[in-house]
Each structure stands twice: as structure tokens, then as C-alpha cells.
Design brief:
The complex is a heterodimer of chains A (about 325) and B (about 525).
Chain A lengths: L17 H7 L6 H6 L44 H24 L2 H4 L2 H11 L2 H18 L3 H28 L2 H13 L1 H13 L5 H31 L3 H6 L1 H24 L1 H30 L3 H18 L5
Helix pairs in contact in A: 6-7, 6-9, 6-10, 7-12, 8-9, 9-13, 10-12, 10-13, 10-14, 12-13, 13-14
Chain B lengths: L11 H8 L12 H4 L24 H24 L12 H28 L3 H31 L6 H5 L6 H12 L2 H30 L3 H31 L3 H30 L7 H20 L10 H7 L3 H11 L13 H10 L4 H17 L23 E2 L2 E5 L2 E5 L2 E5 L2 H9 L1 H4 L5 H6 L17 H9 L14 H14 L3
Antiparallel strand pairs in B: 1-2, 3-4
The chains are: A mainly alpha (about 325), B mainly alpha (about 525).
Amino acid sequence: MQIDLRTVSIKPQRQTYGHIERRFGDKPASRYQEGTFDLQPSANFHYRPTWDPDREIFDAARTALKMQDWYAFKDPRQYYYGAWTLARARQQDTAESNFDFVESRNLGALLPEDVRQLALDLLLPLRHVAWGANMNNASVCAYGYGTAITQPCMFHAMDNLAIAQYLTRIGLLLGDPGALATAKEHWLYAADWQGLRRVVEDSLVVQDWFELFIAQNLVLDGLVYPLFYKTLVEDALSLRGGTAVAMLTQFMTEWYAETAKWVDAQIKTACAESPENAALVRGWIAAWQSRALDALTPLAQRALGERAGAALDDLATQFAARVAKCGVPA
Amino acid sequence: MDMQVPKKKLGLKERYTLMTRDLAWDTTYQPKEKVYPYADYEGIKIHDWDKWEDPFRLTMDAYWKYQAEKERKLYAIIDAYSQSNGHLGVTDARYLNAIKIFLTAVTPLEYMAHRGFAHVGRAFPGAGARVACQMQAIDEMRHAQTQIHSLSNYNKYYNGFHDAPHMFDRVWYLSVPKSFFDDAITAGPFEFIVSIGFSFEYVLTNLLFVPFVSGAAYNGDMGTMTFGFSAQSDEARHMTLGLECIKFILEQDPANLPIVQRWIDKWCWRGVRLLSIVAMMMDYMLPKRVMSWKEAWEIYFEENGGALFKDLARYGIKMPACAEQIRQEKEHLSHQVWSAFYNYSGATDFHTWMPTEEEMQWLSQKYPDTFDQHYRPRFEFWREQQQKGNRFYNKTLPMLCQTCQIPMLFTEPGDPTKICYRERDYKGSKYHFCSDHCQHIFDNEPEKYVQAWLPVHQIYQGNCFPEGSDPTAPGFDPLAAVLEHYRLNAGRDNGDFEGSEDQRNFEAWRGMAKRND
């Protein structure tokens, strides 16, 4: 039975703010809508940046991509600060209990030694990859155009930082600070990591923010996460008694599945806008994809041995299918 | 069974280092200058970013946990407040005009801070500093959005809240806050952090935040009060970051001192000019007053700020030179600014009014040396005129200061009967200033300030009419055209509070909620 509680009812003058009404009509708006659309100042800037004197403070020309309306880049998750924080706090609760579970039952010590070592060798240098991703997403937020896409990039940057921190905790749980130092040595000097480090460092100097979005969030993450967290951790290590590692990386796996949907929606929107955009996106993907795959090859061999070739082929095939689904022309 | 060797417990600092700056490395495939291209051009010398002391040690897992808890509470209160028509509980509908100013003038600055901190959170070569700035970047987004969400319910019932982002880019008085932040974000990363992180967040924030949030608490506005209280712990973090930045920069190289001192001088003055709108809000717009502007200035700047500058003296930092002029102006500021807004009430998205007799008595008591002598007679005259049906609206556009963009309404230091004007020729054009300090700021960077988008100039140049307007057409009403361009509904959003739709609706709705007729 419906219980009809009553409050004094006053007819509102309007349902939402004017700029929201012009986009979505005069009806109650969501917090995502009110907190996102048209929030970035867009006209009558007073001074040119001393750090970029040829452009306005917010300037659509910082990418070669062209959009009629930059707020077409909607976030399917509808994240504003509150929604994002609540979602991540819930995932953090799960991650915390996973860490507790592994720690309290001493599962780290029960891992077969070769599995533990492989996990440390291959996961810990990813701290630095995530750190690069943090910088790149901060960059997209700072120099991108329109709150609809810059806002989730800042959330993404903080997620990347969190992932680097979870990896640090994994290092401390399965190893010790020395393990982190060794992994950093590898990242800096070991031959098989240099390809990936070069790609990451090259991404740090990309000037076009939409190219950077693609290089980092679609291509690099789109190859690194499936290879390391899915193929290596969930499949290969679990078969060898390493389920505990999968528990410790559950955050990354779930995060990747969630954020990939958002990334894909952005690519789709960019390509659907015009054939020129689609061609740009295609070119950027092609350039970064081949470099990233080359960089990952020695690491895949370390991780998977003779199955590396097949795994990399699968990875490339799945990535190509994902890209095609986003409307990127072949 | 194997004996498990207990792991050595890491200290908090050591652990936090592993969680943040140890993630960074010195790039070798790309030169440092390309990875951090904005780090050097301001002339600030940093020799060792490792000396950076993390102002707080918050990892993302803890951050999410604390912030989610705060968000849950805040939105529960916002919902309850809206559902119960909490807006009818405010002292009186005049109060709403204070939060209209907040939404149009302050909330967009929170957004700008979000982007600005993302910029420095990428640009600083030091990893510890970057992480701290990035956290502030998301906090500032939080503040912008919690404000928009809290005030959304007011927008449903009252006028003037409806188009903040559009107005921020266009409306004349909003070019004051906009140019303030544009100035900061277009500066280099070090000046940005000194301007916003230190001068604004650390030295002046209490003069913005405390008056609005306490004003809300005093006037029954639980929505605003709640986001204010909820932001408090974020603000505390931002203040420690601002202070750490200043100390770090000064400790790195003695050559940094004169640069930083110039920035502090500039930004204290820019900040105080920006806060003149808060002064007016405190003294004139809150039906239930918290304290006078003068009292707030004495507590938060002269006492607290004085102690801070004493503390910074060991680095060679001096109290900004403008402090003396501000000390004199505190007696006059709010009255002069309220007079100007009363004049130009035809072109604002909020209402103005003349204080009641009781309120004038409060003002006399708080400003015994100035109010009765200089301002009461003017206000009584205006009130008299209004009662005769001659409410005064100034329709002549004012001259603006090239730096702070406030109309030339301030008086000469030491002579409250004379408007202060300064002017400067630069490359064949004349530029006008409200004060010596604004002129000095211009003199230091003329190429920056000649770019200013001055609303009055723009109106005269015909850049503030709706698209397709023909100013030569017979009967063309320029003021009406400008208001339309602002998306300001003349007769509803602007003008005197007395007789406004807000006033009528509030009375009627409060009656519905409290009586049974």
C-alpha cells in the first residue's frame, strides 16, 4: 500500500538552471547534468596564458579534433564528484577486505615462489606506468576543452594514482621496500622494460590533448590492463596457485572494465562527429598501437613464455574489435 | 611450520613516500624541459624537489573513505532541506541575494581553481607537490558542484540564480572575480600557487568563507551552511598546502624572495579588491548580521594575518605594503560598494535596497567614525526619493579600473569625499586605475593588463548586444539589449528588492506554509 505523506507543495518557477534547460528542457535535471554542462568558462577571457601565449585559457584549438559541441562527450557513468567518490569508496572497501583476507591468512607466503617472484617482477614496474597515466590525465583535464571530458579525466588521474598505490601495497605485502626498489631499477634499466618506458615518456610530451587521451586511455591502458591483469594474473598465475594475486588486483580489473566503457563512449562520440575526426582518431590509434604492442612483446614473453605470441595476437585482435566497435574506420 | 619473519613496520612518512614520490622517476627518453616545460620561465629557482615536505599524507584509499562519508551526509541534508521547503525558513527573502552573488561570483572560481590546480598538478616537476595539487583539483570540483547542487533548489523558486556560467563570462560586475582568476591561471605555475594557494587560500579565505557560511548559519540557510561546513576539512588541507609552498620556495633559493614578495603584494591587493563584494554582503545583505566587515578584517587579517607575516619574517617576507591603505578603507569599503550596487541595480541579477532605520543604527554603531558622517545622509536621501516614487537608478556606465575592473568608486586614502583616480599612458593609450596599488600591478606587467576585457568598453564597442541587434535602429534601447545579452530578465531579476517578485512570492509561500487559510 502506498503511504501518502504530504508536504506543503509550492509550484516551482523553473525546474533547473537556464543552461541545463536549454540543453535538456525544463524538467528536473540530474546532479550530473547540473554539475557538468557548460561549467567551463567559454568567452571573454581577460588575458592570454603566459605559458601558452598563442591560445586562450580554455581553447578548443589545443587539439586537432573539431566538435560542434564539446559537451557531446557525455560520461555514461554520469560521474560528478559525489557519484565518483561514492563508487570508488565502495570499491575501496572491497579492495581493503581482499588485502585483509590475503594478509590475515598469510596467503602471500603460501604463494609458490616462482609465482610470487613473477608477480613482483611484472606488476611492480606498472606503478610507474600508472604514474605516467596520472600525469597524462591531469594534463587532459588542465588543457582539454569542456567539463564533460575534462572532469572525468581528473577523476581518472586520481584513479591512476590509486592504482599505483595499490601496486605499491602489493609490493609491500608480497615483498618489502626492497622489492619496490628492484622493480624501479628494472623500470629504469632492464632491457625488457625500456620499450614501455620509452612509450610512456613519449606520451608525457604529447601536445594534442585528444591524441594524449587516445594514446593513454585507449591504447596503452587498452593493451596493458588485459595483458597484465587478465592474461597474466587471472589466467596464468591463477592456474599456478596464484589466486591471491588476483584478489589483490581485483580493483584494477573492475576499474578497467568500468572505465573502458567511458573511454569507448568518448571515441565513439569523436568519430561520429565527422569523417575528419574519425580519420584523426584512426591515425592516432595506429601510431600508438604498434609502438605499444612492440613495447609489450618482451614483457609478454617474460610472463607467458612460449604462449606469448598467441597471447599478443589475441590481444591485438580483441583490441582491433574494440576499436571497430567504437566506429573507428578500418 | 616455517617461522614467519615479521615485517619491519614502515613509518608513516616512509610509507607515504613510497606511495607518492617514489612512483616518479627522472625521464631519460625525453628531456626534463619538455616534460615540465613551464617550470623555469618565472625565474623561481628550485634546486631540490626532494626537500618538499608533504603537507598532509593522504593516500587515495583514505581520501575516498573520508570524502565519501562527507558526501553521504551532505547530500542527505541537501535533500531533506529541499524536501521540507527549507528555503522558507531563511530570515527574510533579502538574504537570498547574498547567495545569488555566491553562485554567480564564487562558484565559478571554484571551477577555475579545479582547472588551475590540475594545471599545476601536472606542471610542477616535484612529484610530492603535484600529488597535493591534484587532490586540491578534485576538491575544488567538489566545492563547485556541492554549491551548484545546494543552490539548485533556490533556483527553482527565486530569480537570478538561473544562468551563472553564462553571466560569469559576461555580466559587468562578474568581470571582477573572473579577471582575478584569469590573472592567476594565466600566470606561471609558481605565481599561481602563491596567488591562490597562499594569498587567497591561506591569507584571505577566512574573509570569504567565514562570512558566507556563518551568514548562512545565522540566517537559517541550512543548504549553504552544510556545504560550507562540509568543505571545512578540505579547506584546512588547502591552507597547509599554500603555506608549505611558500616556505618551500623561499627555502630553496634566496633569489626567490623578491619575486615571491612582489607576488604576495600583488595578490593581497587583488584579493582584497575582490573581497569588497563580501564586505558589502556582510554589512548590508544579511538580515541577521554575523559581524561587521571591519571587525572581520581586524580579526582575520590584522590579527591572524599579522601573526602569519611575523612568522614569515624569518624568510625576509614583509607585510604587503597595501595593508595600510586597507586598514584605512575598512571604515568605508562596504558603504561605498553597496552605494555603487544600489546605483546599478538595474543591471544586476540580484536586488538591492536601502537599509531600514534599525539597520542604519547598527551601521552607525559599528562604524562610529564614518557612517553617520559620510553615508547615512546619502542613504536617507535615496530612501526618501524612493518613497516618493523616484528610486534612483544610474544609467550612465561607470569608468572601470584597468586592473581590478571595479568601477571607480573608491575614495582617496585620507579623503572620503574625493574619488580616487590614477591614470597611465602606455603605448599611446590611456589606462585608468582605482588606486596606486592597482596601478603598480599594471606597471609591472602592462602587456598583460592591456588585454583586459573591460565590460564597459565592450558595451560601448557594441560587443554586448544580442546577435543581430541593430544599434542604429530607431528606438534601440542599449540597456535593454545588454540585459538581454546577459540573459537577465529585467523587472524580475534586477532592481529594488521592495516590490520584487522574490519578495512577493516569499511572503505568499511562507504564509502557505505557516497558516491555514
